[in-house]
Structures are given as structure tokens and as C-alpha cells.
């Protein structure tokens, strides 16, 4: 409680400090939503073998994906399904069909994307991810943001960044203490990886909880990821046309600009869903043998595919927000890209006092300051 005897200068300083805190609260407005029957309309299908991660899959075209029911919108739930082929018999030395899709649009610094998922792929040999990268240059130039990545039957998922040399995770403010690496261009570009310490962030536990929501903030101040299991999703997060990340609590993973200049190491990001099999991560015996038995390719990919019943994404929506409500987006040629095809890019936006603090809030604070001044003088 303020004292009438307190020096006016002290009170004014406190009020102005509170004013500054409000200014730093960035308001993002909805600019894009992928959901319902039109979910797949604005995504490109990566139609090629999985060369980038040496996975034992063939990523299918849009036509094959739809005709073979590897991508579709469930008519009852109205949710998007992306899955691994679990009906075909794959002969030795061949690969199994799977899906990788990328948004036709790229999103600039000053964006937030929210993915509402009810099921994520899991199982021995399975390697799903929800991530973003720049389609305008050769990877890892332009940066990669991994929001969700899991393998096999691991009890948790992970998140991280991949960049050119010079970007590190320094002094993060995050809830996870499980930091695997801090050099975002480390040995063999392993990235600066943080484990999602929530045991409902992957696998059967994710499904049993009813899924969850992944939030990514791509800002000049840094990059942050949040995860909310279904029972803990903040009220209004999935329906509001605005989002204020300062109201979400401390993120699970955080990469401040102090160790990694976002404008230097990142370009507009295209959003990606991928399901691959085995490869350099899930198929590496060092990791595969932690939760699975046998040989990744021979005992799982080859054969009738019955082990892939849980290898699917079920997504309610992907919603994208930006500090510029008119939309900081650009078309991208991501359909045939593994991270190196050209696209046009959009300029970054700078959040200003005018578009980050509601006008009524500013007026109220100024009126309060003037009223106190009149009362105390």
C-alpha cells in the first residue's frame, strides 16, 4: 500500500517501472490457422527419400498421401491425421512410406505458433518431429527450431536449435534442467538440445493425457518453447485471437538472444511435421537399444508394418500469431526442399509500444499517475 507521506518521486518511479513492465508484454495477433477440413490445403509435401536424416522411409506426394490415407482429416473428430504406412509389406532393402509436410508460408521474427496435438507418433524405430527451418538457403543457415522430437519408446521428448557456428544457449530462463548441449552448431551439428522434462510430452503417456499443446515464440529477444499437457492448457489459449507469452509462465526451453542473435542466425521459418523411421537418431544403436530390442531396420521397417499402429500425428490445429496483425508471412517453395530450396522472405517486424500495450491500459496508468500527483502535491 502506498503511503501519503512517501516522496512523490518514489511513487512516480514505482509507477513508471510498472508501466515499463507492461510495455515489455508483447501482444501477438492471429494471422493464420490450419484446422478442420482445409488443414492440408496450404502445406507442401516433401516427395523423396529421407536423405537429410538417413531414415528408412520414402516421403510420399500429396496424391499418394491422400489416396493411401497417410494424410487425411478425420470426419468425426475434424482433426488432421499424418501417419506411417502400417498395412504394406516392405521387402528387404526397400523403405516404408511416410509423411513430411511443410507450410507454404514462412513466418518472420516476431511470431508465435501453437500446435494442438492429441496424439504423436511413437514406437520402436519411430522418429517424429514438429519443427521449423528456413527454405531460402542451405541448412543450417537460416536456423532450425525443434519444438518436439521423440524417438522409439523414450519416456520424454526434446527440443532445441540448429544453426551455423556462433550461436549458443547462454543463461536460459527455463523450467527444464536437462540440457544436453549448449552449442547450437556442436559436433556433427547436434544442436543445443534441452530435454522436455514433462513425462507426458511423448509416447503412451502423451496419448493417455489427451495430448497437449506446444507453443513456440520466435522473437528478437530469443526463442522459447512451452509444453502444456491437456489438463494444464491455459484457458483461452486455443481459442483467443491474441496471445501474450508473458502470461504462459516460464518456458520449458529458452534460448536468449544474449547467446544467439536471432536476427543473425535465423531467417523466416517454415513449419514442418515429419515422421521418419530409424535413421541417424532413432536407429542409432546407442539410443535404439535403450528402449527397444533387435535391429531397427530389419525387425521393424521390413515386413508387414503391424508395429506402426501408433505411428501417427493427430492434430487439432496449428495457429500462427505475429506482432504485426496484418501478417508477416511470405510464400515458400518448400515442397521439394530438404532445407535448401529458394523462397522469398519477409522482413522482420519490430514490436512497438503502440501495438504491444492496449490503449486503455496506457490511459489508465497515465490517469493514475496524474491523480496521485494531484493528491500528494
From TrEMBL:
One GO biological process this protein is involved in is: glucan catabolic process
- What keywords sit in the KW lines? Hydrolase, Signal
Is the keyword Oxidoreductase assigned to this protein?
Answer: no
| UniProt-recorded Gene Ontology molecular function terms | hydrolase activity
A Pfam match is GH16_XgeA
Annotated signal sequence range: 1-25
Q: Which SUPFAM superfamilies match?
A: Concanavalin A-like lectins/glucanases
Q: Which InterPro entries match?
A: ConA-like_dom_sf (IPR013320), Glycosyl_Hydrlase_16 (IPR050546)
Region feature (Disordered): 329-351
Put simply, this protein is called: Glycoside hydrolase family 16 protein
Source organism of this protein record: Crucibulum laeve
Phylogenetic placement of the source organism = Eukaryota, Fungi, Dikarya, Basidiomycota, Agaricomycotina
Amino acid at each position: 500500500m502506498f503511503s501519503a507521506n512517501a516522496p512523490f518521486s518514489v511513487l512516480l518511479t514505482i509507477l513508471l517501472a510498472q508501466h515499463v513492465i507492461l510495455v515489455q508484454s508483447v501482444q501477438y495477433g492471429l494471422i493464420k490457422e490450419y484446422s478442420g477440413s482445409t488443414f492440408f490445403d496450404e502445406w507442401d509435401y516433401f516427395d523423396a527419400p529421407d536423405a537429410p536424416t538417413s531414415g528408412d522411409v520414402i516421403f510420399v506426394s500429396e496424391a499418394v498421401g491422400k489416396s493411401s490415407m497417410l494424410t487425411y482429416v478425420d470426419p468425426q473428430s475434424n482433426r488432421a491425421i499424418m501417419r506411417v504406412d502400417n498395412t504394406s509389406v516392405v521387402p528387404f532393402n526397400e523403405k516404408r512410406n511416410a509423411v513430411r509436410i511443410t507450410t507454404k508460408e514462412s513466418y518472420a521474427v516476431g511470431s508465435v505458433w501453437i500446435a494442438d496435438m492429441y496424439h504423436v507418433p511413437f514406437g520402436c524405430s519411430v522418429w517424429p518431429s514438429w519443427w521449423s527451418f528456413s527454405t531460402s538457403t542451405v541448412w543450417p543457415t537460416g536456423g532450425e527450431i525443434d519444438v518436439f522430437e521423440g524417438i522409439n519408446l523414450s519416456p520424454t521428448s526434446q527440443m532445441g536449435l540448429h544453426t551455423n557456428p556462433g550461436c549458443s544457449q547462454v543463461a536460459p530462463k527455463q523450467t527444464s534442467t536437462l540440457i544436453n548441449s549448449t552449442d547450437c552448431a556442436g559436433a556433427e551439428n547436434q544442436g543445443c538440445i534441452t530435454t522436455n522434462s514433462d513425462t507426458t510430452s511423448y509416447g503412451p503417456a502423451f496419448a493417455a493425457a489427451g495430448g497437449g499443446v506446444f507453443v513456440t515464440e520466435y522473437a528478437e529477444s530469443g526463442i522459447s518453447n512451452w509444453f502444456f499437457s491437456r489438463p494444464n492448457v491455459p484457458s483461452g489459449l486455443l481459442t483467443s485471437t491474441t496471445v501474450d507469452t508473458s502470461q504462459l509462465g516460464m518456458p520449458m526451453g529458452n534460448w536468449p538472444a544474449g547467446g544467439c542473435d536471432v536476427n543473425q542466425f535465423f531467417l523466416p521459418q517454415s513449419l514442418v511435421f515429419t515422421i521418419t523411421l530409424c535413421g541417424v537418431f532413432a536407429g542409432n544403436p546407442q539410443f535404439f537399444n535403450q528402449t527397444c530390442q533387435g535391429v531397427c531396420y530389419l525387425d521393424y521397417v521390413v515386413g508387414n508394418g503391424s508395429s506402426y499402429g501408433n505411428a501417427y500425428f493427430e492434430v487439432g490445429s496449428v495457429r500462427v500469431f505475429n506482432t504485426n496483425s496484418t501478417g508477416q508471412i511470405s510464400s515458400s517453395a518448400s515442397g521439394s526442399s530438404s532445407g535448401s530450396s529458394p523462397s522469398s522472405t519477409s522482413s522482420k517486424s519490430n514490436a512497438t509500444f503502440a501495438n504491444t500495450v492496449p490503449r486503455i491500459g496506457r490511459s489508465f496508468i497515465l490517469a493514475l499517475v496524474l491523480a496521485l500527483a494531484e493528491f500528494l502535491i
